[in-house]
Write a structure and sequence with these properties.
Length: about 50
């Protein structure tokens, strides 16, 4: 929950987050997918990748 509040991530984006998208040294998270109710990855709601 704290990560969502600090970064503005949506629930589905947080569920799809993997460690290869997190760069702790540069303090960035690449958000390029979300998780849907059919247990599949899909593009983000806006369709654009972003850095959080």
């Amino acid at each position: 929950m704290l990560l969502m509040q600090l970064t503005g991530l949506r629930n589905d984006e947080l569920y799809a987050l993997t460690w290869d998208k997190v760069n702790i040294n540069q303090k960035v998270i690449l958000v390029d997918s979300s998780w849907n109710n059919k247990d599949e990855f899909e593009d983000t709601k806006s369709g654009d990748d972003r850095i959080a």
